[in-house]
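Blackboard transcription, Thursday session:
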Amino acid sequence: MNIIVCIKQVPETTEVRINPETNTLMREGVKSIINPFDMYAIEEALRLKERFGGKVSVITMGPPQADAALREAISMGADEGYLVCDRAFAGSDTWATSYTLAGAIKKLEPYDLIICGKQASDGDTAQVGPGISTHLNIPQVTYVKKVEEATDKSMRLERMLEEGYEIIQTPLPALLTVVKEINEPRIPSLKGLMRAKNAKIIMFTQKELNLDPQQIGLCGSPTQVVKIFTPTPRVGGQILKGEVPDIVKELVELIKGEVN
Amino acid sequence: MDYLLTEEQKMIKDLAHKIAEEKIRPVAAKYDISEEYPWEVLKVMGESDMFGLFIPEEYGGFANSTMNLCLATEEFSRACGGIAVCYAASALGTIPIVLFGTDEQKKKYLPALASGKRVAAFAITEPEAGSDASAIKTVAKKVGDHYVLNGLKHFITNAGDAETYVVIAMTDKSKGARGASAFIVEKGTAGFTFGKKEDKFGIRASSTRELIFTDCKIPAENLLAKEGMGFIVTMRTFDMSRPGVAAQALGIAQGALELAVKYVRQRVQFGKSISSFQGIQWMLADMATEVEAARGLVYATARMVDAGIKDVAKESAMAKMYASDVAMKVTVDALQLFGGYGYMKDYPIEKYVRDAKITQIYEGTNQVQRGIIALKLIKEMAK
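(Written on the board underneath:)
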């Protein structure tokens, strides 16, 4: 089974600071890690490889330092790392990112399965995985919490819902996004770390991918970030006390005040 | 302090740190209470090649280095001295085979030990033979192509859970210390059973039991080295492993120091953080300096062993004695900094005090270590 795992390098903090002038994330001084949800994607790919054989390729789009994320995945047991990296891809939103990654994945054909984390911990959109499957025209199953059955032709999956789960059967190739309930990511081995240190990371630039210039980078991104801010915490409600008829009267006045 | 570790050593330290934080710390209290053997953690250590650090590559390991063993043991002990000793005691049981095993013995035992699927134990101590190891009574009698073992070993770490045991027994009592020999004994051998599991003050995740040999027949090829070399096997093994015990003490001290610094920063009394009081600051400064001094001694000794310097008995003794005395003092001070909360089991610090104590006792009490150091000093001066 040839499996491709899409990962993203993100800052290691849940309290990402935002530059109020440029509306971009402030990455300075913050350690970079693999997006935690992508760790489950890597682990599931490795488990499927252990069952069915084949290989696991990890791919990421990002700046040259995203190389470290690919090497970490290799240290866990992934076979190959691909870095999609070009100034032309800078400023991509989820549309342009999924278009670009889909273009890179076409270079890795044939594949049986693509696995992504359910969303990235910095952007929290959960759009890139489904976007890739749309660009590649393959089925997608999001929020997978368990692989019930797998053959080289199809998979039966448990997909997490807000209440309960549904069982979905999908032909392969398909794209899955996984949730943290699916597994517990392994710790790398020393031999894996050694291998990762010397592994060759293959770089894809716009030159190799030859994508539609209108659909990549900032100009291929329909999303315009107008403003990013940390929402102000909700203030506690007001509790009215006293006799019911008086409170009702007071409440009506308060609502009127709010409306006006 | 920067100890100028190599890239490989940094990698080992970082990986051991990751295992400690993600897999050991969250379960440390659980195993301290239950006294179960922490197989789930040992499995992770095995999969990460940590048991390979003291086993050569050709037998499925990664290298054979005391420094590597120390780095890993220190990191594990930062999170739990009990779980760390399960690891370190397996090293203690494996090292004699690495040092003295024939190619056949190494091929038979080391790959499974390198993967962590099996753990090892080393058995010399007996009820009447603690610091005085020459008083051991367990005997091994050669009968045809077998040895027959009879006797009792006690306070054996990993006993019951380990599969592979290196046991010291007398083959010729008349020769005294030169009449001891080392044997590899496998769990499950007829006549080899275990006594009760000890209920310990600290390092409770590790198992400590008696080994009971009753007409236990083992093949003659399980003799390690030659007859009469039992104490040489033991001494050479301890020279390599003693820095590991020092590293365990060092890790426990470091772990307690970190918890104490973290606690005093958040504890507020008299309207301010107690970390702003000079009395507290001076305690922290002393603790940190002592821990760093211990680290310097431990690493320097480990590097001597790895460089192949033959006589490291004095340095090994100094490292073990100093690091364990520091661990005892620093953990007690750390508990003091936690105040009343530190005395409660809801907080992790009291466990560090309990775990630290054993490091002053086992693998040679600190009194024995001082004896070794003094004797060496006097001998050196007499030259």
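Lecturer's comment: The mean pLDDT of chain A is 92.
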